[in-house]
Design brief:
- GO terms for molecular function: cyclic-guanylate-specific phosphodiesterase activity.
- It comes from Psychrobacillus psychrotolerans.
- By secondary structure, this protein is an alpha/beta fold.
- The protein has helices spanning 23-35, 54-64, 85-89, 93-99, 136-145, 149-163, 184-187, 189-197, 218-230, 247-253, 272-288, 300-309; strands spanning 12-17, 39-43, 46-50, 70-73, 80-81, 104-111, 117-127, 133-134, 171-176, 205-209, 234-240, 257-260, 291-295, 313-315.
- It folds into 2 domains: 12-85, Alpha-Beta Plaits (2-Layer Sandwich); 93-315, Alpha-Beta Barrel (TIM Barrel).
- Helix 6 runs parallel beside helix 8 (189-197).
- The relative contact order is 0.10.
Amino acid sequence: MECNNCQVNELKIEFKVEGYTNIPLLAGVLEHLKRRDILVDAKGNTFIVKESDVRDFIDFSHDHMDASQITYRISKQPWEPMEKIDEVLDVKWIDEVIKKQLMICHYQPIVDIEEQVFAYELLARFPKEDGSMIYPNEIFSAAKARGRLYSLDRACRMTAVKHATSLKGKKAFINFIPTSIYSPEFCLKSTTALAEELGIDPVELVFEVVETEKVEDIEHLKKILAFYKEKGFEYALDDVGEGYSTMEMLADIKPNYMKLDMKYVQGISNDLNKQAVAKKFLEKAVEVGSIPLAEGIEEREDFEWLKETGYKLFQGYYFGKPTAAPI
């Protein structure tokens, strides 16, 4: 079964039929699908159907089969109950967003201790025709449902690299989802090739791991970051907090930047527990040679406390919200 994640082609959905009511009907179902040129492939009690023909099978299964004993999956993802398949079919619009790259980037400043702009984080935004925005969580949920996370992540990365050309020497922090990347050599080559084509100095791009705390395959993450490092790019870990307590792991990864999760930043000037976490985080950053960055700052008092404690970079609404152009 071809990888739906690598290209935005028509989905091919795999079904698994089980249960004493369904199995006797399976041969007839497959013959019907084959006769109508709907069937893509079949093996045992599983078969694959193109998305454009899925409704036909769904209608039949609800009328003549026990739908509770039928599951589906996309691109070898976990099997899901048939009742959830509408969640996949109803968000087909995400395919057009990805194919046509219907996205832009907004710029949020990252400042130094002098409150001078050091870099910008490039944040993907998805405008509708009426000027309103589709929320990122809706976009990424739709992509995940259809097995499109890699394609969406790639489109966002490519868009961000293009937007980085307007920063004139300032660094650009670009998010990426490590779990969407299968092989760094293949999945990231288009990003690095685009940066080279646009004449961007690799050291000006900082690739930021999204949802650092949720990364389970550390060895895979290390391969991705090693690829970026080999190409001359820098990288950052975001939302780091108490969960990243294994010094050996951080020492292996050696991120150029470590972002302290905003939940430990907001209100830190008056919260001893948050202060303890921030100090421990700072010690880790110094030990592994990373630059500590506090994100989510909204109050002057929190900025002052973090600056006096030894943090070097800062981000948050206090310094500027994401805007359509660099400030």
